[in-house]
Amino acid sequence: MTDPNDLPAERQPIDDVPTITCARCNGEWDLSYELDELQVGNQAVEQFALDHKRHTGHFPDDVVPWIVTCTQCPDGEEYLSDRPSKRWARTHARHTGHRVMVHHQSLDESLTIEPADSHS
Q1: Does a structural domain hold residue 118?
Q2: For a surface tag, which of 16, 23, 54, 93 has the fewest beta carbons within 10 Å of its beta carbon?
Q3: Residues 89-104 pLDDT 10s
Q4: In terms of domains, do 25 and 46 share one?
Q5: What is the dihedral angle through the alpha carbons of 14, 40, 31, 23, rounded to the nearest 10 degrees?
Q6: pLDDT tens column, 17-73
Q7: What is the pLDDT of residue 1?
Q8: How far apart are alpha carbons 16 and 19 in whole angstroms?
Q9: What is the pTM of this model?
Q10: Are residue 78 and residue 108 in the same domain, yes or no?
Q11: Distances from the Cα of 24 to the Cαs of 28, 56, 99, 107, in angstroms?
């Protein structure tokens, strides 16, 4: 049998695979699938969190989304970082003329994205 230490770095077994827990599901998962099969690298935690939400209706423990909601229509989204949430808010406001709110626990108060005065 080959000694794992003799393998090139990219083929050596990973011994510190991150894990994610969810108290609501009473479960714990390591991210081997996301790293080995999906090959998402540094995005493994984010990919797992998004997949978990998509399939269970909630995020795992310690994942707090940025929530973007339109004040005039039922449109809205959830993101795991501020940049895409603000991009969605600006784009929605620009195309619809609607005010959009961006919420996250790290903010003292929600951000308000106002539409431009005209659609030109």
Answers
A1: no
A2: 16
A3: 999 999 999 999 999 9
A4: yes
A5: 150
A6: 899 999 999 999 999 999 999 999 889 999 999 999 999 999 999 999 999 999 999
A7: 55
A8: 9
A9: 0.72
A10: yes
A11: 11, 10, 34, 25
How many whole angstroms from its chain centre is CA 74? Answer: 21
Residue range of the domain that includes 86: 66-113
Report whether 22 contacts 63 (CB < 8 A): no
Q: How many domains does the chain have?
A: 2
Which residue, 13, 37, 56, sits at the end of a domain? 56
3-class DSSP string for the chain: CCCHHHCCHHHCCCCCCCEEEECCCCEEEECHHHHHHCCCHHHHHHHHHHHHHHHHCCCCCCCCCEEEEECCCCCEEEECCHHHHHHHHHHHHHHHCCCEEEECCCCCCCEEECCCCCCC
Beta pairing class for 66-70 and 27-30: unpaired
Token pair belonging to 27: 């479960």
- Please list the residues that pair with 30 across neighbouring strands: 19
